[in-house]
Amino acid sequence: MNVSQNKSDLSQQTIWMLAVRDNRDRQAFAALFDHFAPRLKGFIMRSGTSLERAEEIVQDVMLTIWRKAATFDPHRAQVSGWIYQIARNRQIDILRKENRPLPEELKEEPGQEPDASQLLALQQEADKLKQALAKLSDEQREMIEKAYLGELTHQEISTQSGLPLGTIKSRIRLGLDRLRYELKDLQE
Amino acid sequence: MSKIVHHIPEDMLAAYAAGTLPHGFAVVVAAHVSLCPDCRAALEAHHAAGGVLLESAGSVSVSDRLKADLLSRLDEPFTPEPVYERSGVYPGPVVQALKGRAPRWKSLGMGVRQDILSNDAESSVRLLYIPGGQAVPDHSHHGLELTLVLQGSFHDETGRFGVGDLEIADDTLEHTPIADEGEPCICLAATDAPLRFRALVPRLLQPFFRI
Ligand SMILES: [Zn+2]
């Protein structure tokens, strides 16, 4: 994958993640660790996990990132969202001691050239989503954190009128076009 | 495949992303997302939101040993998690729930068959096979019931459901789903309480199906 001509426009995390995915770059992985491990630890501890256990889970999540790097597709996911998903999956798998049901993986055609404009557009959408979340009231913000940290049951989420779920969905539209394109073979 | 018109509600996708849906529902959501690009994109939007929260989460410094330990483990051999591919009409998550085997159909009478994939205290999920023109066996359920069509189609008082469509029924909905004429209808159905079939009551006392 050659994104060098657009590298200056991509987020630092995306550049690190692609280096890990494509070149198994350990330095880039160490940089990802320095950025995400303390955030993951804070995130995991918020849901009431002990200090020691939280570090175990951080290590497990980071190792999973290294091992599953090939499934990272920058056209569809920001690094932070991809890592969020892995962190939730690992926390649940460890808790339940079984693999939670996951959707089928989409396979990118091997050797497909990355679409730089798509990468940047997704990044811009994620930035807009970030701004939208930053504008929430403290109360909404707390509620949405609780929802995504797994502190609310489905019942609680469905009866919380203050949760701006529609906003979240409407912010990421480009991903949808890409998916429709990638899936059109499967659908026919 | 005809276009999917009945999708997963936003609150349910968010709960799935956060991992708080009962297991049976999670199987149905993962199966629908495997068939539906709209819901996959919506799910990825929820992951993106989770990512934004992760980015802005308060950092807690990690011990020096953690990084050194981790970097020393990168070359450790490991067994990759099994990947479940779609098999015929069954999406990957259903194949996973079947543990890779073919469905083991058990007759419920009148040509209707089922295979219970899991049944725990929180939820149950099963496959249903209904011949064309036949009604779905009568069963009572508390709370929510999700029904995802994998083959054929059915209709009830609320509308028509084809492949990929998801019907959500709560306990206030009195409905009688009937498979459309033609090929048998195969559905994945989950409830958030253990199943209780009226069909288990002696047939002389209860009509087997509401038709
Ligand atoms: Zn859908």
CATH class of the largest domain in chain A, anyone? Mainly Alpha
Share in β-strands of chain A: under 5%
Poorly predicted regions of chain A:
1-5, 182-188
| Strand fraction of chain B | 15-25%
Largest sheet of chain B: 6 strands, antiparallel
Strand order of the largest sheet of chain B: 1-2-3-10-5-8
Provide mean pLDDT of chain B, rounded: 87
**Gross geometry of chain A:** globular
Order of helices and strands of chain B: HHHHHEEEEEEEEEEE
The kinds of small molecule bound in this structure are:
zinc ion
Please work out how many helical segments of chain B DSSP would assign. Answer: 5
Poorly predicted runs of 5 or more residues of chain B: 198-211
Instruction: Classify the fold: give the CATH topology of chain B.
Output: Jelly Rolls
Distance between the termini of chain B: 28 Å
CATH class of chain B: Mainly Beta
| Largest protein-protein interface | A-B, 79 and 67 residues
Q: How far is the first residue's CA from the last residue's CA of chain A?
A: 29 Å
Gross morphology of chain B is elongated
What is this structure, in a nutshell?
Chain A has helices at about 10-25, 25-45, 50-65, 80-95, 115-135, 140-150, 155-160, 165-170, 175-185. Chain A is an all-alpha fold and about 190 residues long. Chain A starts with 11 loop residues before the first helix and ends with a helix.
What does the model show?
The complex is a heterodimer of chains A (188) and B (211). With 188 residues, chain A is mostly helical. Chain A folds into 2 domains: 9-100, Orthogonal Bundle (Rna Polymerase Sigma Factor, Chain: A); 114-188, Arc Repressor Mutant, subunit A. Helix content of chain A is 66%, strand content 0%. Chain A is globular. Mean pLDDT of chain A is 81; it is low at 1-5 and 182-188. Chain B contains 5 helices and 11 strands. Chain B is of the alpha+beta class and 211 residues long. Chain B has one domain (1-211): Jelly Rolls (Sandwich). Chain B has helices spanning 10-18, 23-35, 37-55, 64-72, 92-97; strands at 106-109, 112-119, 124-130, 139-140, 145-151, 154-156, 159-161, 166-169, 178-179, 185-191, 196-197. In chain B, the strands form 3 sheets. Chain B has a 6-stranded antiparallel beta sheet, covered by helices on one side. A 3-stranded antiparallel beta sheet of chain B has the order 7-6-9, with no helix packed on it. In chain B, 27% of the residues lie in helices and 23% in strands. Chains A and B meet through α2, α3, α4, α5 and α6 of A and α1, α2, α3, α4 and α5 of B. Zinc ion (ZN) is lined by residues 4, 7-8, 32, 36, 38-39 of chain B. Zinc ion is lined by residues 4, 7-8, 32, 36, 38-39 of chain B.
